[in-house]
Amino acid sequence: MTWEQLYELWGIRDFIYFISSPDIQQKLLPVKLVFIAFAIFFFVAVIYFYVRSSYLQRHFLQDTAEFLLWQPYGLQGVNRRWKQIMKKTEFGFDNEYKLALIDADDFLYQVLEERGFKGETFEELANNAGKKVLPNLDVIMQAHEVRNSIVYNQDYRLDVEQAKRLLSEYESAIKNIAAT
Questions:
Q1: pLDDT per residue over 40-65, tens digit each?
Q2: Whole-number Å distance between alpha carbons of 99 and 91
Q3: Partner of 88 for a Cys bridge, out of 65, 100, 140, 155, CB 3.0 to 4.6 A?
Q4: Do the Cβ atoms of 106 and 84 come closer than 8 Å?
């Protein structure tokens, strides 16, 4: 059986002629316009909600930024703030290290809050973050105690080497949290 015979058997040719006739096409024009309007509306709605959602930012912009900058997304802002903290230690005076240590502690507190950890105090935030997020939690808690000693005791003497070590611990904790 040939295609011609199948078309005739099923009436496909007659159906195609019927559907493509100018009379039917003119009658179906309003229906076509309604479906085209719906298609345009839903296409625009999908694009609108896609752009307004965080999906585009999370899956495209963040990946692109990480690829171009060779570092995790958001770490650039952390590095900028950390440079400001470390700028306070340029001259090597212990008072500058005290201020840098207080700022580093505040910055870690802010980063923990931004990541959604709950707690009223620094200790609660750090403990809720746990060892998985803060592998150096014990050292961070000691650094926080030093920070409290600096804040509440004006005569507190801070060893510069100890301050450098504590700042290094704060830096690794902050960058570890920011990178996740």
A1: 999 999 988 877 877 766 677 766 76
A2: 13
A3: 100
A4: no
| Identity at 70, one-letter amino acid code | W
Q: Would you give the DSSP letter of residue 58?
A: I
CA distance 159 to 109: 23
C-alpha to C-alpha distance for 178 and 108, rounded to whole angstroms:
10
3-state secondary structure of 72: coil
Each residue's pLDDT tens digit, 72-124: 666 667 778 888 888 888 887 888 899 999 999 999 999 899 888 888 888 88
> For residues 170 and 149, what is the distance between their CA atoms, to the nearest angstrom?
17
The C-alpha atoms of residue 145 and residue 139 are separated, in whole angstroms, by: 10
